[in-house]
Design goal:
heterodimer, A: mainly alpha, 21 helices, globular, B: alpha+beta, 5-stranded mixed β-sheet, 40% helix, elongated
Chain lengths: 492, 212
C-alpha cells in the first residue's frame, strides 16, 4: 500500500469518458460580438466628435490592447513556470491558462492598428513616429517643431493652463501680501509667477526634438513594426507549442510530451522574458521617448502575472459555477492559485515602488517628468488629477487586495475570491490606463473612447478565447499526473 | 532487545498483558507502539484520535502528508504570531527612521540622539526614502517571530525526554513509525491504552517509565 492510496479520489472524480468539450450557444457569441461592435462604434463616434478624439482613441485602444495582452502573457508565464518547476499540483488547472495563452494570436491581430498608429505621422501617439520618412533630419526639426506647437494637443494644454491661471488661489493670498517685493511689484504678479502652470513643459517630449531624433535608430516605424511582428510571432509559436503538445497528449498519453514541454521550458522562459521586456518598452514606454526606466519591463510583467492568475482563477470559478468543468477543484487548488495571486500583488507593489523610489530619490528632471505627468508631483503648477488615479492604484492595486487576500480563510472562500479576481483585473486595467492616458492631457480623461475600446478589444478577445476553448478538453486528460493533481490536498 | 517482558501485569478481565516490554521500573511515562509502514500508522493515528487522546504523538522518519488530519490537529496559530511580529517590526521601523532622521531633543545623550541631516532637499522625514528600511524591519521581525514561535509552540529546545532512553525510539529516524501516548493524558489508563494499541496490531509495544 502506498501513500497515495490514502488520498481521497472519490471527491474529485474526473469524468474521462466525457472529456468536457466546451460549447457556447449562438446567443452568447452574438452577445459578445454585439458588445464588441457597440463598443467599437461608440469609440469611433466619440473619436470623431471629441476634441482631438482620434489621438485619444488611439491611446485608449493601446490601453485595452495592453490589458488583453497582459492576460495572455500572464497565462503563458503560468504555463512556463509549471513546466520549469515540474509542478504536478497545477496539471488540473493548466488548460484554461493554455487557452488564454494561445489567445495571444487574437491579440496579435488586434495589435495591427498599433502598427498603423506608428505609421500615422504627425498625429501618431508615438512622438518618435511624428517625423515621416526621409524628412527625419535634424535640419527639418525647427519647422516640424513649429508645426507641432500649433498642434491641437498643445492648444489644449495651453487653454487648460489659462483656465487654471485664472482661478484665484486663496491660500496663497495671505502669503503673497506679506512677501511684497522691495521694488513695489504688486503681489498679484508674484502669485501668478508662483502658480504658473508647468504642464506644457511636462509634455515637451511630445514634440520631435533632438533627443528623440537620437533614438530613431531603434524607435522608427519600420523597425517598430518588425519587432511587433517578431514578439507576437514568438509568443504565438510558444503558446501553440504548449497548447498543441498538451492536446496531443490528451489523445496519446504517456510521459513523452510532458518531458518535451519541460525540456523546452527554460529556453522559452528566457525568450519570454526578453520579448515581454522589449514589448513593454516599445508599446508603452516609448510613448515618452525621453524617459527610460530599466525596470519598466518587470513592472509590466508584474501586471501580466497578476492579470494572468486572476483570470485563470476567474475562468475556473465561473466555469465550475455554471457546471462546465469536468473536474472539481479541491480547496488546495484555489488556495494555491490565491497564494500565487497574493504573492504577485505584492510583487507588483514592490516593483512599482522600486521604480518610483529610485527616480524620486535621484530627482533628475529628465526622469521625474514622467511621474509629474502621471500626477505624482504636489509642487505648484505640476499638480494634476492623475494624482487621484495614482492614489487609487496604491490602495486598490496593492494595499487593499494585499490585506484582503492575506488570510487563508479568504483564499478558501470561492465567492470571495471571485470578487477579488474581478476587482484585481479592474485595478490592473486602471494601472495600464494610468501608464498610457496621462500622455493625452494633464487631467483625467475617461469616457466613451476608453470604455468603447475596452468593449471592442475585450469582446474580440473573448470571441478568440471561446473559439480556442472549444477546440480542446478543459482538463489535460492525457497528462500522467492528472489523478494526483485532482486529488491534491493541503500539506498541513 | 535488552528489555525484559513484564511478568506481572494482568488486567482485571484476566487478559494477559505481558505482550509489551517495559523499560525501567519507575512510574509509567508513555506507551509506544511500533509500525513499519505509513498506511498502518495512519490508521493507528486515526484510531487514537477517535479514542479521544490529546497528549500523544506520531514519530516518523519521513514527512507524512495529511498526518495532521489523521491526528486531528487543530490549525496552528503561528500565522497570527507572524502577523503581530510583522506589525511590531513595521512600527519599530517607522519610529527608528523617524527618530534618527527627523528629531533632535535638546540635552539628550549623543548616543541615543537623533541627527537631522538634510539629504538632497528632501523633507527631514520623507517616507518613501524610509520605506525600504521599514519593509526590512517588518520582514526581519516577522521572520524572527515565526522561527521563535515555531520553537515555542513545539516546546523546543527540549534537552531531555524520557523517550530518548528507549532504543526502539532510535529507529524513528530510520525505518519505523511510532505512536506514543503519554501517561499524562487524562484518558491514559494502563490496561485500556494497552488494549487499544494492541488492537492496532503493531509490530511491538513498549511501556516507558521514568523515575520521579
Amino acid at each position: 500500500m502506498t501513500e497515495s492510496d490514502h488520498l481521497p479520489h472519490t471527491e474529485h472524480e474526473i469524468h474521462l469518458d466525457s472529456p468536457g468539450y466546451l460549447s457556447f450557444s449562438r446567443q452568447v457569441i452574438l452577445g459578445i460580438l454585439g458588445t464588441a461592435l457597440a463598443g467599437g462604434i461608440g469609440a469611433v463616434l466619440a473619436a470623431l466628435l471629441y476634441t482631438d478624439g482620434m489621438r485619444r482613441l488611439m491611446l485608449a485602444y493601446l490601453v485595452a490592447l495592453a490589458f488583453v495582452l497582459s492576460i495572455s502573457l500572464g497565462s503563458l508565464f503560468f504555463i512556463l513556470i509549471q513546466h520549469l518547476t515540474r509542478a504536478g499540483w497545477a496539471v488540473l488547472i493548466r488548460r484554461p491558462a493554455e487557452v488564454l495563452a494561445l489567445n495571444v494570436i487574437t491579440v496579435g491581430v488586434l495589435a495591427l492598428p498599433i502598427i498603423a498608429f506608428a505609421f500615422s505621422g504627425s498625429v501618431s501617439i508615438y512622438p518618435w513616429a511624428r517625423v515621416v520618412g526621409s524628412d527625419a533630419t535634424l535640419d527639418a526639426l525647427p519647422t516640424e517643431h513649429a508645426r507641432l506647437r500649433s498642434d491641437s494637443f498643445v492648444h489644449l494644454v495651453a487653454s487648460h493652463t489659462e483656465a487654471i491661471a485664472s482661478i484665484p488661489i486663496e491660500e496663497d493670498r495671505a502669503n503673497s501680501h506679506s512677501t511684497n517685493s522691495p521694488d513695489g511689484e504688486p503681489p498679484h504678479a508674484i502669485r501668478h509667477a508662483e502658480t504658473e502652470d508647468q504642464h506644457a513643459h511636462l509634455y515637451a517630449h511630445q514634440t520631435f526634438d533632438e533627443l528623440t531624433a537620437s533614438k530613431t535608430a531603434w524607435l522608427n516605424p519600420a523597425f517598430f513594426s518588425v519587432r511587433l511582428v517578431l514578439y507576437f510571432g514568438i509568443w504565438s509559436a510558444m503558446a501553440w507549442f504548449f497548447f498543441s503538445t498538451s492536446r496531443r497528449q490528451d489523445e496519446v498519453g504517456g510521459t513523452k510530451d510532458t518531458l518535451l514541454m519541460e525540456q523546452w521550458s527554460p529556453p522559452l522562459a528566457l525568450a519570454f522574458a526578453l520579448t515581454l521586456t522589449f514589448a513593454a518598452f516599445d508599446l508603452l514606454m516609448s510613448l515618452n521617448p525621453h524617459w527610460y526606466s530599466t525596470i519598466f519591463g518587470v513592472y509590466y510583467f508584474a501586471g501580466c502575472a497578476v492579470g494572468g492568475f486572476a483570470s485563470s482563477l476567474l475562468v475556473w470559478l465561473v466555469l465550475s459555477r455554471i457546471g462546465k468543468m469536468p473536474a472539481k477543484l479541491s480547496e488546495a487548488h484555489f488556495r494555491d492559485l490565491g497564494r500565487l495571486l497574493f504573492a504577485f500583488i505584492f510583487f507588483w507593489g514592490y516593483i512599482a515602488f522600486s521604480q518610483y523610489m529610485l527616480l524620486w530619490y535621484a530627482n533628475i528632471p529628465e526622469t521625474t517628468s514622467w511621474w509629474a505627468v502621471r500626477g505624482a508631483s504636489l509642487a505648484d503648477g505640476y499638480r494634476s488629477s492623475w494624482g487621484y488615479v495614482l492614489v487609487i492604484l496604491l490602495f486598490g492595486h496593492f494595499i487593499v487586495p494585499f490585506l484582503g487576500i492575506m488570510s487563508r480563510h479568504v483564499k478558501d472562500h470561492q465567492r470571495a475570491m471571485m470578487g477579488w479576481s474581478i476587482f484585481i483585473l479592474f485595478m490592473h486595467y486602471i494601472d495600464l490606463y494610468w501608464l498610457v492616458m496621462p500622455e493625452f492631457r494633464p487631467w483625467i480623461a475617461f469616457g466613451l473612447p476608453e470604455i468603447g475600446s475596452l468593449m471592442l478589444v475585450g469582446g474580440l478577445y473573448c470571441i478568440g478565447a471561446t473559439y480556442f476553448a472549444t477546440q480542446t478538453a478543459l482538463v489535460p486528460v492525457g497528462d500522467p499526473r492528472i489523478a494526483p493533481s485532482a486529488a491534491l490536498k493541503d500539506m498541513y | 532487545m535488552s528489555h525484559s517482558p513484564s511478568p506481572t501485569t494482568v488486567d482485571a478481565g484476566g487478559v494477559a498483558s505481558a505482550d509489551y516490554e517495559t523499560l525501567g521500573t519507575g512510574t509509567p511515562y508513555a506507551f509506544v507502539a511500533e509500525f513499519d509502514n505509513v498506511a498502518d500508522v495512519m490508521r493507528a493515528a486515526e484510531t487514537v484520535r477517535d479514542a479521544g487522546y490529546l497528549l500523544w504523538d506520531v514519530h516518523s522518519p519521513i514527512p507524512i502528508h495529511h498526518i495532521n488530519h489523521a491526528m486531528g490537529m487543530r490549525p496552528t496559530i503561528l500565522p497570527w504570531i507572524t502577523l503581530v511580529h510583522g506589525l511590531a517590526g513595521l512600527l519599530f521601523g517607522l519610529i527608528l527612521t523617524w527618530w534618527m532622521n527627523a528629531t533632535t531633543v535638546p540635552g539628550l545623550s549623543a548616543s541615543i540622539q537623533g541627527y537631522q541631516f538634510l539629504i538632497s532637499g528632501k523633507p527631514m522625514y520623507s517616507l518613501p526614502a524610509n520605506i525600504p528600511i521599514i519593509f526590512e524591519t517588518t520582514v526581519l521581525f516577522a521572520a524572527f517571530g515565526t522561527i521563535l514561535g515555531l520553537l515555542g509552540l513545539n516546546k523546543l529546545p527540549m534537552l531531555y525526554n524520557p523517550l530518548s532512553r528507549s532504543r526502539r525510539m532510535l529507529r524513528a529516524t530510520a525505518d519505523r513509525f511510532l505512536v506514543v501516548i503519554e501517561a499524562e493524558d487524562e484518558k491514559f489508563e494502563l490496561q485500556g491504552t494497552a488494549r487499544l494499541l494492541r488492537s492496532l496490531q503493531p509490530r511491538a509495544m513498549e511501556l516507558i517509565t521514568e523515575e520521579r
